[in-house]
Amino acid sequence: MRAFLKSTFLSIIALFIFIPSALADNAVTRIDGSTRYATAVNVAKKGWSSAQTVVLIGNSINTDVLSAIPYAYQINAPVLSTDKDKLSAETKSGLQSLKTKKVVIIGGVKIVSNSVVSQLKALGISVTRLSGNTKYDTAVEVAKKMKASSTGIIANGFVDAVAIAPYAAKMGYPILLTDNKNLQSVTANYLKSKGIKKTIVVGGELVISKTAFAKLPSPTRVGGATRYDTAVNIVKKFNIDTSNSYLSNVNAKPDAVSGTSLAAKQGKALFFVDKNNVPAASRKLIGEKKIKQFQVIGGTNVVTANVISQLKNPVVGKKVFIDPGHGAHDSGAVGYGLYEKNLNLDVAKRLNTKLNNAGALVTMSRTSDTFDSLQTRVSKGANAKADIFISVHANSNDNSSANGTETYYDKTYAAANSLKLAQNIQPKMVSALGTRDRGVKTAGFYVIKYSKMPSVLLETGFVSSPVDSNILKSATYKDRLASGISSGVSGYFR
Ligand SMILES: [Zn+2]
Hints:
Aminopeptidase, single chain, 2 domains, alpha/beta
C-alpha cells in the first residue's frame, strides 16, 4: 500500500516535471542574499563548491576591480567583497565554507584596510594585495599576474567592462583602463612592454576618445548608443553563449561584479536590466538569440518582481505589430455613438501598453487619427520585422441583433501559426468581454492576406449592437480586452 502510494505520488510529481518545454514559460533563477556580501557568497557557491583562492574587493567599486575578472578566471577564484575596515560576517563564513587558503585583495588600504588583512590571517588565510596609486595602475598590476597575451581590452566605463569580462576571461585578455580624454601613460607603457599587438576598445567615443583610440595598437571598438546596447553588442560581436544568460541591474555594481565572475567561469553572457524593466536593447537580444533561461543577480531591492515576470513571459523580446484599423477620413463602422477608428485606436494603445509591460517590442501602424492604405500597413509590419501582426477592428451589421467577438486569419502565409495565434487570442477576448463567442474564422482581408508573418484580424464586437456597443464604450472592459489579447499573445509564444 505504501509502495503504491509512493509510486502514485511520484507519477503525479512527474506529471508536473515533464511538462513539454514548448508549453512552458521562460525559466528565471534569482541569486541573492540578505546583503551584497551574502549575494556575492551565494553567487560564488553556484560556481565553486570549494575555492583554494578567493579574490577580494572592497565596497567602493571602481572599474579596476573588473581587471580582476580574467585574472580570477585564470587562478579559478571566485570574487567576494568586504567592508573596508572589517571583514564582513557573510564574507568570513563564505571563505570558511569555501575552505579558502589564500586571498588576493584588489586595491590599496583605502579600499580594503590592513585590519581586514589581520582578520584574514587570523583565519589562517594568506593574503596578497594587488594595487597601484591609481585605478589605472591597479589594472596594470593585475594584468602583470596574468599569462602573456597579444591582445588587451581597453575600458573606461564600469558597465562596459562588466559586459566584456566573461569574454576577456575566456580568451585570457587583460582588462586595462583609460579615461575619456587620453591614453594613460601607465597603460600605454604596459601595452608596449608586453608587446601587445591588438586591442579591443569597449565603449563609445564619449567613454574612450578618438585621441586615446588612435594611440592604441590595432584597435577595434565595440560600443553602442546606451550602456545596454554596448553590453548587447559585445555579446553579439564575440558570440558569447547566451543560453542561461546572467542579468544584473545596470546600477548595482557589487552584484554585477559577482555575476560577471560567475558568467566568466561558466562561459556565459551577462547583460543588463533596470530595477523595474528589461530595457529595449536587452529585449532585442533575448528575442534574436531566443533566450529561454536567465539567472538574475541581486535581491528585489535591485531587480523587482516585475523584471522577473517580464523575463518569464514568453513574449519577452518578441516583435509585435499592432494595426488599429481605419483612421482619419475612414471612420470604419459607426453605431451608438462609437466610431470604429477611435475604438480600434483606443484598444490598440491599451494593448501596446500591456504588451510593453509584458516585455514585448511593439510597433503600431498608427498612434493617432491618421490614415494608411492597407498596403502601407502591410509594409510597415514587414519593415518592423514583426514576429506577429495583429489588426484591431470592430464589426457592424444592418441587423442590430448581430453581436459577438470573432478572430480572422488567412491561409496564404504562415497558415498554421496564424491559426494558432487566432486560437490563443479568441477565447481570451471572449472571456474578457463576456461577449458571444463567434469563433475563429478564415477570410482574405488584405492586411492578413499579404502579411507574411503569422497574422490575425480581431473583430472585438459589433458597434451596431446595443449589447456590444455598451461593453465597448467601457474603459474597464477595453482594458480587460487588452489584457486578454496580451495574454493570448503570450500563450501563442509559450
Ligand atoms: Zn474595420
